[in-house]
Amino acid sequence: MKELLQTQILNNTIEAYLYVIGTIIVALLLRRFVTRSLASIIYKRITKIGTTVQKVHFLNLVVEPLDLLLVLLVSFAAFEKLNYPKLWKVNLYKIPVQQILDAITIGILILTFFWVLLRIIDFVAMVLEEKANDTPNQNDNQLIVFFKDFFKVLLVIVSVLMLLRFSFHQNIGNLLTGLSIVGAAIALATRESLENLIASFIIFFDKPFSTGNTVKVEGFTGTVERIGLRSTRVRTEQKTYITIPNKKMVDSILDNLSLRTQRKVETRLELSLSTSAAKLQTLIPAIRQILEEDVVEDCSVYVADTGQQSHVVLVEYFTNAFQDFKSFLALREKVNLRIITLLETLEIDLAARKMDVVVHAENQ
């Protein structure tokens, strides 16, 4: 039996192969128990900040990459017990195959490790979003989404640098020095993207608007649904979904309609020139009374102009900005109908109601 176990195959004994296979099988059998125990420890550490997010959500996120990471670590450690076969000591494009395999091994480990970190960031963001939902301010929610994406980008960059350092044995210091020169050229070529990135930070810290606000910018009016690293997504009044670069959201004149304290309504009445001054003096206080009865917060009614075509009476009033849009339209309709009824009662005609058509016949 000992002679059989010591039989050499590709520079390794059968005993060594059995050791490696047995180690990998044990890792496969115990991986779920080990990874769940490790995930539970991480969960307890994270939930010290206070959360009711269920443990099952965290396990669903991290157990799969942890399983893979554990099996890979044990497998690669077990393979270290094997000698590299002499028959495989060949070059592929002037690079030893053993070096290529080592680079692939290290690269897989690095990528799997950062996969775990990305899943942990997702869970931390989930916890923070839950806490942010308890506050009325929607800025917290969007800020979490923004920084979740930001840190994920940083992790991806770090993982690429780690791959270059440990898989391809590149000097990161020299590489970063070279990249700084290249980065300056790229920065000039991608100036607009960098400006949008900087503008996104300005939006989050200066807070001219937040998610859920109704804004008017660049001729569009809509509700802000998402603020990203490069652009802001707005759902317009026509229910279309537009993307506006963050630079325009910062540099343009932006009207945050959600922050207004009142809604203004302006109605222009062009009355017939046959309307007497006495009727106008009766009409104006009557309109003011209508407005006061309809619970407007401020109003003004006055004769704004007169001329060859009409007498112009300007009706301006302000309503509560926090009422919903349908209620606002219903109030405008009610006020307009009462003004029309008042004009009919006072027998006041609008300027365009009567029109005389005069036909001049030319002599043949």
Any descriptors?
364 residues; elongated; three-stranded antiparallel β-sheet; alpha+beta
Question: Can you offer a commentary on this structure?
Answer:
The structure is a single chain. The chain contains 10 helices and 12 strands. The radius of gyration is 37 Å and the shape is elongated. The protein is α+β, with helices and mostly antiparallel strands and 364 residues long. A hairpin with a 3-residue loop joins β6 and β7 (231-236). A 5-stranded antiparallel sheet has the order 8-7-6-5-9. It has helices at 2-5, 14-46, 55-79, 97-132, 139-167, 172-189, 191-206, 246-251, 277-293, 325-345; strands spanning 8-9, 12-13, 91-92, 95-96, 214-217, 220-227, 231-236, 241-245, 255-256, 262-271, 298-306, 311-320. α2 (14-46) packs antiparallel against α3 and α3 packs antiparallel against α4. The model has no long low-confidence stretch (mean pLDDT 80).
Number of helices: 10
Strand order of the largest sheet: 8-7-6-5-9
Provide the gyration radius in Å. Answer: 37 Å
The best one-word shape is elongated
Classification by helices and strands: alpha+beta
Largest sheet features: 5 strands, antiparallel
Strand fraction equals: 15-25%
Which sequence of SSEs, written as H and E, runs from N to C? HEEHHEEHHHHEEEEHEEHEEH
Number of strands: 12
Distance from first to last alpha carbon:
134 Å
User: Mean pLDDT score, rounded?
Assistant: 80
